[in-house]
Specification:
The complex is a heterodimer of chains A (about 70) and B (about 425).
Chain A lengths: L11 H10 L8 H17 L2 H4 L9 H8 L2
Chain B lengths: L3 H4 L4 H19 L2 E3 L8 E6 L26 H8 L2 E7 L33 H8 L5 E6 L5 H7 L2 E4 L19 E6 L2 H11 L26 E3 L1 H7 L2 H14 L4 E2 L5 H19 L1 H6 L6 H10 L4 H9 L1 H13 L4 E5 L8 H4 L7 H9 L3 H6 L3 E8 L5 E8 L4 H14 L9
Parallel strand pairs in B: 2-3, 7-8, 7-9
Antiparallel strand pairs in B: 1-3, 4-6, 5-6, 5-10, 9-11, 10-11
The chains are: A mainly alpha (about 70), B alpha/beta (about 425).
Chain lengths: ~70, ~425
Amino acid sequence: MNKVTTAEAWSAEAIEAALAAQGIALASGRAERLARGQAALLGAAAADPVLGGLEFEADATGFAHAISRLK
Amino acid sequence: MNSIAEARRVAPEELRRTCEKRIEQWQPRINAFLGFEGNTLAGVPLAHKDMFYRAGRVSSCGSKIRRDWVAGETAAALERLDAAGFADLGRLNMSEFAYGPTGHNEHFGDCRNPWNPDYITGGSSSGSGAAVAARLVFGALGSDTGGSVRLPAAACGVTGLKTTWGRVSRHGAMPLSHSLDTIGPLARSAEDCALLLQAIAGHDARDPISSRESVDDYSKEHSGLRIAVSSAWIERNAQPEVAAAVLSAVKVMTKTPVEVPPPDFDTLSAHCLVVMQSEAAAQHARWMRERPGDYSSAVRARLESGFAIPAAAYLEVLRARAASLERFCAQTLGNADVYLLPAIAVHLPTREQTGPRGGADMPKLLADVTRLTRWVNYLGVPALVVPCGFDSRGLPIALQLVGRPFSEAKLLAAGRAFQRETDWHTRVPA
């Protein structure tokens, strides 16, 4: 499993602070639900073995070439 | 008069009168249209999701925020349809900012399924699916970021094409998530989708991700297409009526399906969501700071989620995108041309179950509905949804054909071949 995105799930307090720092105010109780949802989502994404096998040189722009090459 | 080819042989005034009569009859029941101030060019009548801009016309994007916003330019796709001789009857209902899979809209009223108004139309191109199904128009444009063409096509029993990322210009179309957004047609048949795609496909310098790949002849036949399928997965995971309809369709399409293991739908869907949430949050950041109360609670919650995704996680998922596409082409498609699966693996939920007063099981219901569409957007590949049956409640069931990048011509040929052998696409709600 990839370590960058699974180091630790964010707590509700951390989520609330992170969003407040971006100017986004959350309704009461929303941070807890958001923390649970994002922990599940990021955990599921990070479980992909493809992430662990990526070449160091792989970057996000490679997809534009891949989509033409693999037609 | 059930196809664009047939309609082209009829006088434009008669076509328009026929469609207007249907609209008068159906609009109060399904709320598919948001406005009728479209151009009056003569031609086969279409209408489009209210996120394709036309200069001088309101484009609400299904939102309160843009309820009265007037576009300053015309979408590339609309320009091309105008040039190809299609008429635009007006603006169709949609999920707010194309960010919802059901067709609910608290600002303009829900779009309702013509087969049974208690059930969802699918979204976000809800009006496009409903209007084509009820035969109010011959076709409609939709956008597909996580399933927004395919879900309403499947739920309303029409044919819908999610195009390859970059195949159709997004210039003048409302953005949601630039790495995933695609534009595609919904119509009465694969044949009609091919005609509409032929009109709108091709490079456009005004869209930075528009592809320079040559445009195929989408009406060309492709015989001997090899169909890959994961039958055991479908039997295990799809609702039995859905599994039976889809596996029966496989038998119609090929005598020799290639059995393959399924892609990891859930992981690829998670990647899609990470990208979609991050990019949608960035797109809406200013309004989310300045007027969050003008969003519906559901869309606001979805947008908030994107602000809680670390930039490194977002970019890691994008770094893996090329490798994931390579894996799909090599391991799932292999020597096959098309991968066949259900469009929606479960029974459609009602509007009440998935609306503002939905219960605790609503997140699972929505996840089930979208389970088999988002992974396709992450891979950027095309997918065609074709009706293949009805469930015991009289609601449509649809299959999905997924291909390699820029293989729309093969998907449409496979869809046409299936529709020559079946009549599901000709059924019309009463």
